[in-house]
UniProtKB/TrEMBL annotation:
Protein name listed in UniProt: Aminotransferase class I/classII large domain-containing protein
Coiled coil start-end: none
PANTHER family given in the database record: AMINO ACID AMINOTRANSFERASE, L-GLUTAMINE--4-(METHYLSULFANYL)-2-OXOBUTANOATE AMINOTRANSFERASE
Lineage, opening ranks: Bacteria, Pseudomonadati, Pseudomonadota, Gammaproteobacteria, Chromatiales
NCBIfam families recorded: DapC_gpp
Cited InterPro entries: Aminotransferase_I/II_large (IPR004839), DapC_beta/gammaproteobac (IPR019878), LL-DAP_aminotransferase (IPR050881), PyrdxlP-dep_Trfase (IPR015424), PyrdxlP-dep_Trfase_major (IPR015421), PyrdxlP-dep_Trfase_small (IPR015422)
Residue stretches making up the Aminotransferase class I/classII large domain: 32-377
UniProt keyword terms in alphabetical order: Aminotransferase, Transferase
Source organism: Thioalkalivibrio sulfidiphilus (strain HL-EbGR7)
């Protein structure tokens, strides 16, 4: 067996299951899960209808690059969304569809890391655990950059020593951040690109939450837009990852894309022809329809905004919690240890939240997720309001 498998840590939800083991919450309270970031809003009807009307495509093997229509629709969407120069994002060279960004974020490290050169893969802490697993199984050492309220949950790139950058081969960004919802501005993204040029590494920007922002707010910037406005219109060293799961409420479709540096994507395409993750033709058709429509995305944002308003009104004076810049998570401080908070909240109120320490790693400066919990506002509005009331009662009982 691959010995690097022994370096993987249990997934956060496995830890959460063990934390809750043996606890019997009140039977009269229906369970409300705020722990998993799985969108619960209805899938738009036109996406499901497009999927169903293209089932005849199952009679054909899909190609790894995806069909022209899908790639061209993605390129057009990204060009509009991130204000890219016309024609700079070539659908044939700069775009690859992927079967969900989770598999792509993992596979990317296997493609770009040279394990013979004592590599580091840098990532935020807290983080999406795929980054760490990808680094370990690529033969690299994860290097964690702590995010806290003191740095507004943003990467302090200036604080990273040159010795670390010299070993860095891959930097994972998450913008907007999971779990904090903090947004890196374009100046911050440009700084990351400048460092990539100076120290010869690749940036993998996980932008899966970029379309979940508040109505009327300035949309979060993207890495490709920052690169283009620096004159880097071939998107050298920059690769972005986008998903329909959150944007369009289709987590089961397993559909997203990667875009950016054409030379890197050509090698990634080679890897993927062996990896075998081509998107099925019906999924391609449904994805093309989804990327071409913005009305359902605007409605989605309205639903999340209503839930943030309601939950913050109920919890704002009993927990240290604030409205994020984007995304659909709350990231409050807890008045007791985060694991104790999550376990006792479940036991007393039948509400599940995720301990922040499960999303982070211990470092010399501590565990930046400790004494916080992640609350995913994915349930319907009435359930979120009910959950907030129960959480309030629990906190007031402490």
């Amino acid at each position: 067996m691959n010995p690097d498998l022994d370096r993987l840590q249990p997934y956060p939800f496995q830890k959460l299951t063990e934390l809750k083991a043996g606890i019997k919450p009140p039977a009269h309270l229906e369970h409300i899960a705020l722990s998993i970031g799985e969108p619960k809003h209805p899938t738009p009807g036109f996406i499901a209808e497009t999927l169903a009307s293209h089932l005849h495509g199952l009679a054909h093997y899909p190609i790894t690059r995806g069909g022209d229509a899908l790639r061209e629709t993605i390129a057009a969407w990204a060009t509009r969304r991130f204000d890219l120069p016309a024609g700079s994002l070539d659908a044939a060279r700069h775009v690859l569809p992927v079967t969900g960004t989770r598999e792509a974020l993992f596979a990317f490290a296997q493609c770009v890391v040279d394990r013979s050169r004592d590599p580091l893969v840098l990532m935020p802490n807290p983080f999406y655990q795929i980054y760490e697993g990808a680094a370990l199984l690529a033969g690299a050492e994860p290097h964690f950059l702590n995010l806290s309220a003191d740095n507004r949950f943003l990467l302090e790139l200036d604080a990273v020593p040159d010795a670390v950058w010299n070993r860095c081969q891959l930097l994972y960004l998450c913008n907007p951040g999971n779990p904090s919802g903090a947004v890196m501005d374009e100046a911050h993204l440009r700084q990351a690109i400048e460092l990539a040029e100076r120290f010869d590494f690749v940036i993998a920007a996980d932008e899966c939450y970029s379309e979940i922002h508040f109505p009327g707010a300035t949309p979060p910037p993207g890495l490709l837009g920052a690169a283009a406005r620096m004159g880097n219109t071939d998107y050298r060293r920059c690769v972005v990852f986008h998903s329909l799961s959150k944007r369009s409420n289709v987590p089961g479709l397993r559909s997203g894309f990667v875009a950016g540096d054409a030379q890197i994507l050509e090698r990634f395409h080679l890897y993927r022809t062996y990896h075998g993750c081509s998107m099925a033709p019906p999924s391609q058709a449904a994805s093309t329809a989804a990327w071409a429509d913005e009305a359902h995305v605007e409605e989605n944002r309205q639903l999340y905004a209503q839930k943030f308003d309601a939950m913050l009104e109920i919890l704002g004076d009993v927990l240290k919690v604030s409205r994020p810049d984007a995304g659909f998570y709350l990231w409050p401080e807890t008045p007791v240890d985060d694991q104790t908070f999550a376990r006792e909240l479940f036991g007393q109120q039948n509400v599940t939240v995720l301990p922040g320490s499960y999303l982070s790693r211990d470092t010399e400066a501590g565990n930046p997720g400790r004494n916080r919990v992640r609350m995913a506002l994915v349930a319907p509005l009435d359930e979120c309001i009910e959950a907030a009331g129960r959480i309030r009662r629990f906190v007031e009982s402490l």
